[in-house]
Design goal:
The complex is a heterodimer of chains A (318) and B (436).
Chain A: H1 16-27, H2 30-61, H3 80-87, H4 91-121, H5 127-135, H6 142-152, H7 159-166, H8 180-207, H9 212-220, H10 225-236, H11 238-253, H12 257-262, H13 274-283, H14 287-317
Helix pairs in contact in A: 2-14, 3-14, 4-8, 4-11, 6-8, 8-11, 9-10, 11-14, 13-14
Chain B: H1 2-25, E1 37-42, H2 48-64, E2 68-73, H3 77-90, E3 96-100, H4 104-109, H5 117-121, H6 131-136, E4 147-152, E5 155-159, H7 160-165, H8 175-185, E6 193-195, H9 204-215, H10 237-253, H11 263-271, E7 275-280, H12 283-289, E8 299-302, E9 312-315, E10 317-323, H13 330-340, H14 344-351, H15 359-362, H16 373-380, E11 385-388, H17 397-412, H18 418-435
Parallel strand pairs in B: 1-2, 1-3, 6-7, 9-11
Antiparallel strand pairs in B: 3-10, 4-10, 5-7, 5-8
Helix pairs in contact in B: 8-10, 9-10
The chains are: A mainly alpha (318), B alpha/beta (436).
Chain lengths: 318, 436
């Protein structure tokens, strides 16, 4: 693909890059450009209208005092909204909760999802039905899952304490959602249950792309199951794994539904992550500070994605 | 070929341009070709049963007014007020809307609501409304942004059998008596609890009710967060006593996990027989009547608990119907609201367990018997159960709710002292009133 062959008439010694430019100049006429632009117009207009315009409108609120409960004056206030967020006594807790939420959910999701995908790769009776059941949580709304888990983790009437009592693991009810640490753990458990499915789907698809002859070759070379998995299968599906992890980090970061349904950020703001706090601020009508939080999320995620992709690329080069 | 490709390209670009122009330029005039007006009506505190009832009422209105059609929009309850805000801000999409005492302030401030004062002055049905309904239909500056459809008021739901079994002759009359009875009934080992404590969303409202009962006669009834000398109620010694009793109620007589209990858990706790006492609005009557765990002869209601001074403040909450300022069919919208606030409101209030807005409805046998009797008791004795107005219409009410709920939970999990919570609330309101 990276051919350096010369076209007739091209200057001698001109590298491929320059050749491509001259090729473009020769064929990309203004009328052709117009045609291309006209074809692209629907996509450009839709993206501008429904993605960038609302984004810019939303972003400018971050620099204004914009409270929905009193829109008579919405002055520009520079970085005051950002300062106010960072000076909030809950800021440290919310940031650390966000990290716990992402890392604590991601790792078990990856490990369990990988395990399930390996099991589902084998052929067994009823595999199709079992696969459908495993994938089911992904089809349910996150907020609904939050509400369901809120009842399951209810200390007095919930099924979790009831089961733990019946198997003799506990004597007294555990106040799952009343204690900040337990509430954090409960939300992560719910999110792990929800997100395992996505990893299973993605990894299973990748596993099915590993050719049987490669696996047979490693078996002939005397590799055991663990060795084959570690040295053959994982390197083979590395790209899918890397992209799935990247996607999940972004999605988990941006996924307030379960926490909002389960705890609403409580008790006493102790389970808020950045995005649930954003919802809480919009419910108070404080769109200015909520937009500022939105911008912070955007910057953090863009920085993370760039760094992560660069790191993966560097690793691939090695 | 080249020309046809270009034509397609031009066509698609033109289509997008036209679509954009149409999208930007369209506005819903709501007038059908036959001259009939279609009103867009949006509700907030919806439930499937209520929506069905409302639709049947709208059908009756349409049959009485052949030139008017009503299209009811029902967003999910949790997001409804946000949706209404967005619609009002956009300036189209709603003619008639559900306005709550908590949203009338901000909606009115932003100029999104139509002042119905001149229309209502000419309305013959105005005199049929109770004094409370007429009072709540006016804002502090005399504007009529909505007509209430009913009222929510607190009463104490209690288990008659458990109270009797614990050796008490009747339900508690005061907060202190509630603490005593609930503590005696509590038996956590058997999953039996005294009080369905509200620690989650809107949990602050019950501690404020207790504080108001303790402050009693010294309350400013027009602004129940103030004492008569203009200070906040949170700065009083009575507030400290009330908070002390209230938090004892949590420690001694409530489920430990009720730190996180909101409305659904409280009602479920009473409904499934786990808790003996519940402080709630009359809308819960309908839900508990359907309970399979608690039979009709096992529960009743008692009037709102009084403080040491023998007084209680009934923090009336309400919602009603208003007209959007941007509506181009205001006369028709007003007509619909007058219909909903007339005889039709009787059925709406009964089926939704609301305190009625019509004087004639109060004499109905329905409100004099069973769980409703305590409401009649409270309505008759207004020197004991003071009707007060909380400052729920202020622009910062939503911010206050979030702060107060969080502070309350901090006390419950031991991160804040009760006195510091009250001091913080005093500072908050003093500063707000000073700057706004």
């Amino acid at each position: 693909m990276t051919t350096t062959e010369q076209r007739p008439g091209a200057p001698v010694g001109v590298p491929g890059r320059r050749k491509a430019v001259s090729h473009g100049r020769r064929t990309f006429s203004s009328s052709k450009g117009f045609t291309v632009l006209a074809f692209l117009a629907p996509a450009i207009v839709v993206v501008l209208l429904f993605t960038y315009y609302p984004m810019i409108r939303g972003a400018q609120m971050a620099f204004r005092q914009w409270n929905l409960y009193d829109l008579r004056t919405t002055p520009w206030i520079g970085f005051d909204n950002f300062r106010s967020l960072m000076n909030d006594p809950n800021w440290g807790t919310i940031v650390s909760n966000t990290v716990i939420w992402v890392v604590g959910s991601l790792i078990p999701q990856l490990v369990i999802g990988f395990g399930l995908a390996l099991l589902l790769r084998r052929k067994f009776r009823g595999r199709g039905i079992y696969q459908a059941l495993v994938f089911f949580p992904w089809a349910v709304s996150g907020f609904l899952i939050g509400i369901l888990f809120r009842w399951m983790f209810n200390s007095e009437f919930g099924v979790i304490n009831d089961l733990l009592k019946k198997v003799g693991l506990i004597d007294a009810n555990i106040p799952w959602l009343a204690d900040p640490d337990l509430a954090r753990l409960s939300t992560v458990i719910a999110n792990v249950w929800y997100g395992v499915t996505f990893f299973t789907i993605m990894i299973l698809a990748a596993l099915q792309s590993v050719p049987d002859d490669v696996l047979e070759a490693s078996a002939i070379d005397g590799a055991g199951k663990v060795r084959t998995l570690w040295s053959v299968v994982i390197p083979y599906i590395r790209t899918t794994l890397a992209l799935t992890v990247l996607l999940r980090v972004i999605w988990i970061f941006n996924f307030p539904d379960i926490i909002y349904g389960m705890t609403g950020g409580g008790p006493a703001n102790q389970t808020h992550i950045i995005t649930t706090w954003m919802i809480s601020l919009t419910q108070q009508g404080d769109y200015g500070r909520a937009s500022a939080l939105g911008l912070i999320v955007l910057v953090v995620l863009v920085a993370f994605a760039s760094f992560y992709l660069l790191a993966v690329k560097e690793r691939d080069k090695k | 070929m080249k020309r046809s490709i270009r034509s397609i390209a031009l066509g698609s670009a033109a289509l997008v341009a036209a679509g954009t122009l149409i999208a930007c330029g369209s506005s819903d005039s709501g007038t059908a070709a036959g001259g009939a007006v279609t009103l867009q009506m949006i509700e907030s505190l919806s439930s499937p049963d209520r929506t069905t009832l409302l639709k049947s009422m709208l059908a009756t209105f349409e049959s009485q007014n052949p030139g008017i059609k009503v299209q009811l929009v029902t967003p999910p309850t949790e997001q409804a007020d946000n949706k209404i805000q967005q619609i009002l801000q956009a300036g189209s999409g709603a003619d008639v809307l559900e306005v709550r005492d908590t949203t009338v302030g901000p909606f009115g401030t932003n100029g999104w609501l139509y002042d119905m004062t001149p229309d209502m002055a000419k309305w013959t049905g105005l005199g049929d409304l109770t004094d409370t309904a007429q009072k709540y239909s006016k804002t502090a500056d005399g504007k009529t942004y909505f007509i209430p459809y009913g009222f929510y008021g607190l009463s104490l739901f209690y288990r008659t059998d458990l109270v009797k079994a614990a050796g008490f002759a009747g339900p508690p009359k005061s907060w202190d008596e509630l603490l005593e009875q609930a503590s005696k009934i509590q038996d956590a080992g058997k999953n039996k609890y005294g009080y369905a404590f509200r620690g989650g969303k809107n949990g602050f409202s019950n501690v404020v009710t207790a504080i108001e009962a303790y402050v009693g006669d010294d309350l400013d009834t027009e602004n129940a967060f103030k004492t008569k000398d203009g200070k906040t109620i949170f700065a009083t010694d009575e507030a400290k006593q009330a908070a002390a009793t209230y938090f004892k109620l949590f420690k001694q007589a409530s489920p430990p996990s009720s730190v996180a209990w909101g409305y659904p858990e409280m009602v479920e706790g009473f409904n499934n027989g786990s808790t003996a006492f519940l402080l709630q609005d009359p809308e819960v009557i309908a839900a508990i009547s359907k309970s399979s765990a608690v039979k009709a002869d096992q529960w009743s209601t008692a009037p709102l608990l009084v403080g040491p001074s023998g007084k209680a403040a009934q923090p009336v909450a309400t919602a009603g119907w208003g007209v959007a300022q941007a509506s181009s069919h205001k006369p028709e919208a007003v007509k619909l609201i007058q219909f909903l606030s007339g005889e039709a409101s009787k059925e709406f209030d009964q089926k939704n367990s609301l305190v009625p807005i019509l004087k004639s409805a109060q004499n109905d046998e329905f409100y004099k018997t069973g769980p409703w009797a305590s409401y009649v008791t409270m309505t008759k004795d207004t020197s004991t159960w003071l009707t007060v107005i909380q400052p729920r219409g202020v622009a910062w009410w939503s911010e206050w709710q979030t702060k107060a709920d969080s502070d309350l939970q901090q006390v419950l999990i031991g991160k804040l002292s009760s006195d510091d919570m009250l001091a913080g609330w005093d500072t908050y309101w003093t500063q707000k009133w000073a700057t706004k």
